[in-house]
Amino acid sequence: MGSNPGFDRRVAPPAALVVPAVLAALASLAPLAYLVDIAFDRGMPELWDELWQERTFRLVVRSGLLAASVTLASVVVSVPLAWAVMRSDLRGRRIWRIVLALPLAIPSYLAAFAWISWAPSLAGFWGAFLVLTAVSYPYVYLPLTAAFGRLDQSLDEIATIHGKGSMTRLVVLAARQCRGAVAGGSLLVALYVLSDFGAVATMRYDAFTWVIYGAYRAGFNPTRAAVLALVLVLIALGLVVAEAIARGRTVSTVTTRAVETPRPIRLRNRSLWFQSAALSVSMISLGFPVWRILVWVDTFGSEDGLGDVASALWGSVRYSLIAAILTVLVALPIGLLVARYPSRTSLLLDRATYVTHALPGIVVAISMVFIGVRVLRPVYLEAPLLMLAYVALFLPLAVGGVRASAEQIPIALDDVARSLGKGPMAVVRRVDLPLIAPGIAASTALVTLAAMKELPVTMLLRPTGTETLATRLWTYTTVSDYAGAGPYALAIVVFVAIPTAIATGRR
Amino acid sequence: MRYSHRIIPRVVALAGVLATAGTLVACSSDSASDQPDSSTRPDTGQPDDTGPADPCDGATGSITVYSGRSEKLVADLYTRFTAETGVAVEARYGDSGELAGQILTEGSATPADVFFSQDAGALGAVSLGGLFATLPDSILDRVSPEFRSADADWVGASGRVRVIVYNPELVPSPPSSIDELLEPSWKGRIGFAPTNASWQSFVTALRVTRGEDAARDWLEAFAANDPVPYEKNAAVRDAVNAGEVPLGLVNHYYLFEKIAAEGADAVVAVNQYLPGDVGGLVNVAGAGVLTDSDNAEAASCLVSYLVSDDGQEYFVDTTFEYPLVAGIAQAEGQPALADLDPPAIDLADLSSIAETQELLADVGLLTL
């Protein structure tokens, strides 16, 4: 466990990590420049006027309530299930491990529509709560399975030997060991809820994003949208700080005996409980929307041939894969820096990447239009600008993954390597990178699927004439042609499920 | 961010316009038959305004269209246009409001040659931002003055009428005016789309025709009647058809879209037109050419195609909207535009959507 504080903490981080990390964090904050410019354009009194309204306060409360309850529910769902599939002898746990992550493949707007078209009375808070929990709990579940998978099982043994082997205690003990993963995942869920438009709009829950979209779409009121978006940024900052506190001082409790297969804890008579929990969660979050999509496809058929779907699929796969690889490359220096050279500065860089993630897609999209035509004119409405927007939007997903896996490698390993005369970058290359390879793969998959589902940024920034699955789906759902939308919805779910399975499966 | 100060005031200023030109259109029973009168437009004094030159003369190359009209509705139209003129069209499809926001954010750097918007408000926004070029008379004169910009920089291509869509199984005798919707018997039984541009245009019309106080009274009474908000018009229509709410405030063609998509048997809902009522106003979809277009000839050519006989018939057949050019008949099952008797509103009298939104927010109707 742990490392010798007297030895490694004073090692200065190599510039080869610091410089790209700083640049990456700054780039991810680029959309903020636009928001600040627009919001302050008419001066402080106007800004204050826009801000200081009972309505704004009400929106904070409503969005906050939704974010808090969805986050809490995600943790409650994820902890026992992640524990069961990683640490217990649950039957079919290898399949469950993947199936339970698959709801990540369902875009929130699709899930929301599947529910409300079947049960209109769900509209409102509970509908939004249900859909958002169903599609976002994997953000907690996934890092938690990763962390559980690498947890030193001797802790279980010690607990059992000391007569503290009750199931609940084992789960809680394990989760406390992995509070970094829980905290990081919770932050992503909360930010996701704050920035989501699809579910709250479909469920007609009056939240921040709805008003922000309204201000852009119907009101052409960029000032109000920018002011409200800045409030979201402030809330995000608060969440980021809260997460840092909840995460606490991460102690590396991971075994270095990496090859050892942990001996699963026997569930015995609790097995049925865990089986039914896993089944209900996957039915609600995965089975139901997939069933609804199949009904649309089956009932109506579609005019679009396989060729149309294939070309949209190609657009989606191409852009999201490239975006994912770029995002992970950009995330590596930050993730490694904060995990291997923890300091106030490296932590700040890490946190900075989360801010953009709290912004609704339309805000990031308009910001990138603003930046694109002024600073990056040659690539405006070309693939590179779209990639840049994806990187800004999804950086925290990758940073979180890299950081989590890097933190699990005892810093002592670095110390040993250095004591053998390796330079700091050589240590990163030869020791850290190979060990976090699974984390890198998972992060790439996570960003790929997020980019495939993304709509507003893709709509505004994609090269003219290019279609993706998400834009096609939009085309049909805006004219409420669910027959036409069916195949694209199905393709999104199926093809987003692939990276999701990759992100989960290989452990 | 000093460079931004050129564009931002424009963007902000839009709040002033939105509904201005053409969102709400006076279409008295005789106006549709009136020959468009170019003297009602300000004289731009431009030499190229003289003579009915064909805007497509010399049009070649390709143009980029920011299309607020969806691909499903207009892709074929662009294909026909290309086949006829040889001008290639690169379309960026999106939400009209978002595209207007994109154009205004892009400013003079916009790659767009034509903006084809689903509603007049977004056109007005771009016009107010000073980003539309003046159109030639040969295009403007095809359409009567109520359906085009007072600044001669955009033209309506098709008409969209506000109606009450109702479920006859739940509503044997539907209201014939928006004021009847305020009766307690409709409490919690009216669907509407609070963020929808057409709804907000209707509210602007209400303010213009009845004055601020009367409009506020109506909206407060409406809000007190617990109307049910939906994300968009199509959702309102579906809810009405499914019997989730007995009636809703939408545009006329949503019903015909559903009939075309799912067959007449699947649709029980019916349109109630509101002649003589402010609730029955006529909005338009339309287009303009961007000032900074690098292929203005081809861009004008596309806009002229939209108001050609072929273009007009396309809308009748495909989108079930009203043709705006005299002599083209509307779709089957629809009353004549001339019989709809929408509110007589001078477009110039329409004030900003910003005030409409403030009012809506005040009475708690902007979102729910």
Question: What would you note in describing this structure?
Answer:
The complex is a heterodimer of chains A (507) and B (368). Chain A contains 25 helices and no strands. By secondary structure, chain A is mainly alpha-helical. Chain A is globular. Chain B has 368 residues and is an alpha/beta fold. Chains A and B meet through helix 3, helix 14, helix 19, helix 23 and helix 24 of A and helix 1, helix 2, strand 2, helix 3 and helix 4 of B.
**Amino-to-carboxy terminus distance of chain B:** 36 Å
Shape of chain A: globular
Q: Can you give the mean pLDDT of chain A?
A: 82
Question: Helix fraction of chain A?
Answer: over 70%
The SS-based structural class of chain B is alpha/beta
Protein structure class of chain A? mainly alpha
How many individual β-strands of chain B? 10
Query: Helix count of chain A, per DSSP?
Result: 25
Low-confidence stretches of chain B: 1-51
Q: Tell me which protein chains meet in the greatest interface and how many residues each side has.
A: A-B, 49 and 63 residues
Observed structural traits:
A: 507 residues, 0% strand, globular, disordered N terminus, B: 368 residues, alpha/beta, ten-stranded mixed β-sheet, 10 strands
Concise overview:
Chain A has 507 residues and is an all-alpha fold. In chain A, 76% of the residues lie in helices and 0% in strands. Chain B is built from twelve helices and ten strands.
Q: Would you spell out the secondary-structure blueprint of this structure?
A:
The complex is a heterodimer of chains A (507) and B (368).
Chain A: H1 5-8, H2 15-28, H3 30-40, H4 43-51, H5 54-87, H6 93-99, H7 108-116, H8 125-136, H9 138-149, H10 154-161, H11 167-177, H12 179-195, H13 198-202, H14 208-217, H15 222-247, H16 271-300, H17 306-340, H18 344-355, H19 361-375, H20 383-407, H21 411-419, H22 424-453, H23 456-461, H24 469-478, H25 482-505
Helix pairs in contact in A: 2-17, 2-18, 3-15, 3-19, 5-6, 5-8, 5-9, 5-12, 5-16, 6-25, 7-8, 7-16, 8-16, 9-12, 12-15, 12-20, 14-15, 16-25, 17-18, 17-20, 17-22, 17-24, 18-20, 20-22, 21-22, 22-25, 24-25
Chain B: H1 4-13, E1 62-67, H2 71-85, E2 88-93, H3 96-106, E3 114-117, H4 120-128, H5 137-140, E4 155-166, E5 190-192, H6 197-210, H7 212-224, E6 228-229, H8 233-241, E7 247-251, H9 253-262, E8 270-272, E9 282-289, H10 296-306, H11 309-318, E10 322-323, H12 353-362
